[in-house]
Amino acid sequence: MEHAKSGPGSWPEMADVVPVPQDDGPSPVVPIAYRDDFREVMDYFRALYFAGERSPRALRLTAEAIELNPGNYTVWHFRRLILEALDYDLLQEMNFVEKIAKCNPKNYQIWHHKRWLAEKLGPDVANKEHEFTMKILALDAKNYHAWSHRQWVLQALGGWESELQYCNKLLEEDIFNNSAWNQVMLCASLCLKNFLFCMQFHPQISSSFELHRSFHSMSLENCTLFLDLLPLFINV
Questions:
Q1: Disulfide engineering: 13 pairs with which of 7, 20, 57, 225, CB 3.0-4.6 Å?
Q2: Could you tell me the CA-to-CA distances from 55 to 84, 87, 153, 212 in Å, in that order?
Q3: Mind listing the pLDDT tens digit for each residue in 122-177?
Q4: What contacts 201, CB < 8 A, 6 or more positions away?
Q5: How far apart, in Å, do the first and last CA atoms of the chain sit?
Q6: Under a CB-based contact definition with an 8 Å cutoff, are residues 78 and 51 in contact?
Q7: What does pTM read for this prediction?
């Protein structure tokens, strides 16, 4: 992503802020040669961070700091505090983090922030999250972070109904995609677990009617998945 052409020192809203330089001690052995734009942003960030300021200008500053270093956990944490304090539009924040993630698809802090947002927004963003992980996995089908996030979204927010179809597509493209096979087995294990739970209440499943009745305590998504995966259970 492109960095700002002018640093926070030129922002009118920062006129009253005194930047706080990094303290490396009196005689640093190997001082890091930070770029001037990075040093300026972080000096202003420290000033607002130490003051505990949660304001629109602080939010803007965290965006600048994240673009310069998307792996800075402290900046992401402070940004979440600001978002909550400002009651900020989290859908807009989701768009921001997705732009960062596309350039940094294996960054731990970004995916942690994305999960935090998804938890706040709830099931309504499940499909959006699945679509995003599909975009990331199209670039790298074995991206651990994307798969982990996808599995969490499936279990926490839903969206199982098309998961097998998606996995089949990936396996058609690469039969050796261990990540896709792992996802298939995850679907199978969760569905079998639900089915065995139902068997406790309906041990005499001897007809399609009884099988139908046993699905009563299962979600529609899991029922559909179970029927798709039933041949796996029969062949085992």
A1: 57
A2: 11, 11, 30, 55
A3: 999 999 999 999 999 999 999 999 999 999 999 899 888 888 889 888 988 998 99
A4: 214, 217
A5: 50
A6: no
A7: 0.78
Is residue 106 part of the annotated active site? The answer reads yes
Query: How many Cβ atoms from other residues are within 10 Å of residue 38's Cβ?
Result: 16
Amino acid at 101: A
DSSP for 164-223 reads HHHHHHHHHH-TT-HHHHHHHHHHHHHHHHHHHHHHHH-----SHHHHHHHGGGS-HHHH
Length of the chain in residues, anyone? 236
| Under 8 Å between Cβ of 38 and 19 | no
The pLDDT tens digits for 78-137 are 999 999 999 999 999 999 999 999 999 999 999 999 999 999 999 999 999 999 999 999
Closest CA to 32 of 69, 78, 73, 67: 69
CA distance linking residue 131 with residue 196, whole number of Å: 31
Helix (H) or strand (E) holding 236: none
Active-site pick, 99, 102, 106, 142: 106
Helix (H) or strand (E) holding 101: helix 90-103
